[in-house]
Write a structure and sequence with these properties.
By secondary structure, the chain is an alpha/beta fold. It contains 16 helices and 13 strands. It binds uracil.
Length: 435
């Protein structure tokens, strides 16, 4: 088998065999296949796509490129959720402890900030002492004892996916339905789940900007997960503005803690509840949608979700007491970006808003860059709000003048202010496999 022949086959739109896909992934992981050949292959996939069968084989190859977690002997269901990525998306920080506090086990392997999107693992690491680089043995123990862990992808679990994702990030080959599907499902299946809820984002801050593409991705993921016997529900949610008010790392932990204490913003709570309903449904612990909502609301109200979050933080070495005054971890350099005009906020280019977070150091330009946990911003005006010339749109927590200036330019570019009141946007667009 010759690598260039397989690349050529895909370039010309032909289907690949299981052996050919296995050959590529194994040789890439071992270092025999150089980055430039894999980059060419990935670009061919972006253009030509993959059949459902090819995607199943690719997912299987990535999944078995490392070790997997064996949790079959544990009582209770293991359920997880995964987001395709967005800006201000701190749902996992609220949802995972909320659902875990109700007896569902959640082995969550999360990502880091990349491109314009944020990452749960970076946000969590703004808690002093908290470790996310856990061994398989530690993940296993946390799932057994606490019922919840949020960990970084290790070299032990799905190493081929990790290597491939880093290459996709720098070769503009992320936005491909089969590649996203295989990347997400391989990571999720490696921890032995009983079911998975996917939060497929759509809008200007999502990889799938239009609803049709988001539906196609959701449909593809649900079908591939079916072929791999993993019950999966996909919820398509809006990402045409940052979720909640806060964007960054420590800033988002502040907002997540407030939400766990019952003081969260409406949109964040609505997405969390919707995803939570489907997680309980997959776990088989609710009779219907209303029952699930009531159970979730109770766990938020009685403090069970917050206690589970504290338990997880403590188990992973984090300073639980720091959560009481977490605002102190946010940069004290604060300036506002003000509106250039009066009117309604009619559009917020969320990709640009994500880049503003990167400019502030809260995200990363390249895999391996360090992030500044203290920087970020607060959205003071969201879609449909009115504003006036000179009134603050965004409050920025910054490190130095140059990064503030760069972020300010991006934020001003992202906001569109006009006279016409925009139509209200739906937050939950669609559910595949609804009740
Ligand atoms: N998130 C992932 O985990 N993988 C992708 O390919 C895209 C988003």
């Amino acid at each position: 088998m010759l690598t260039q022949d397989i690349i050529k086959k895909k370039r010309d739109g032909k289907g690949l065999s299981k052996d050919e896909i296995a050959f590529l992934i194994k040789n890439y992981l071992s270092g025999e296949m150089p980055d430039y050949q894999m980059a060419a292959f990935l670009m061919a996939v972006c253009w030509r796509g993959m059949s459902r069968q090819e995607t199943v084989w690719l997912t299987g190859e990535l999944l078995h490129s490392g070790r997997t977690l064996r949790t079959d002997s544990l009582p209770g269901k293991k359920i997880d959720k995964h987001s395709t990525g967005g800006v201000g998306d701190k749902v996992s920080l609220v949802l995972a402890p909320l659902v875990a506090s109700m007896g569902v086990r959640i082995p969550m392997i999360s990502g880091r900030a990349l491109g314009h999107t944020g990452g749960t693992v970076d946000k969590l690491e703004s808690i002093p002492g908290l470790r996310t680089q856990l061994s398989i043995a530690e993940i296993d123990k946390n799932i057994r004892d606490v019922g919840l862990t949020i960990a970084d992808q290790t070299g032990e679990l799905v190493p081929a996916e990790k290597k491939l994702y880093a290459l996709r990030d720098v070769t503009s080959t992320v936005e491909s339905i089969p590649l996203i599907t295989a990347s997400i499902l391989a990571k999720k299946l490696a921890v032995g789940l009983d079911g998975l809820v996917l939060d497929v984002k759509t809008g200007s801050g999502a990889f799938m900007r239009c609803i049709e593409d988001a539906c196609a991705l959701a449909q593809n993921m649900v079908e591939i997960a079916d072929s791999m016997h993993k019950p999966t529900i996909a919820v398509i949610t809006d990402m045409s503005q940052p979720l909640g008010r806060m964007v960054g790392n420590a800033t988002e932990v502040v907002e997540a803690v407030e939400t766990l204490q019952g003081r969260g913003p409406e949109d964040l709570l609505a997405v969390t509840m919707e995803l939570g309903v489907h997680m309980l449904r997959l776990a088989g612990t609710c009779s219907d949608r209303e029952d699930a909502r009531q159970q979730l609301a109770r766990a938020l109200k009685d403090g069970g979700a917050m206690r589970k979050f504290q338990e997880m933080v403590e188990r992973q070495g984090g300073d639980v007491r720091s959560l009481e005054r977490f605002g102190q971890r946010v940069s004290k350099n604060v300036r506002e970006v003000c509106s250039p005009a009066s009117g309604y906020v009619t559009r917020i280019d969320t990709y640009q808003m994500g880049l503003a977070a990167v400019a502030l150091g809260a995200g990363r330009r390249r895999l391996g860059d360090a992030v500044d946990h203290s920087t970020g911003y607060e959205m003071l005006a969201k879609l449909g709000n009115t504003t006036e010339r000179g009134r603050p749109l965004v409050k920025v927590f910054y490190r130095d003048e140059a990064s503030f200036k760069e972020a300010e330019g991006l934020i001003l570019d992202a906001y569109e202010i006009s006279d016409e009141k925009p139509a209200a946007r739906r937050l939950i667009h669609k559910v595949l496999r609804d009740f």
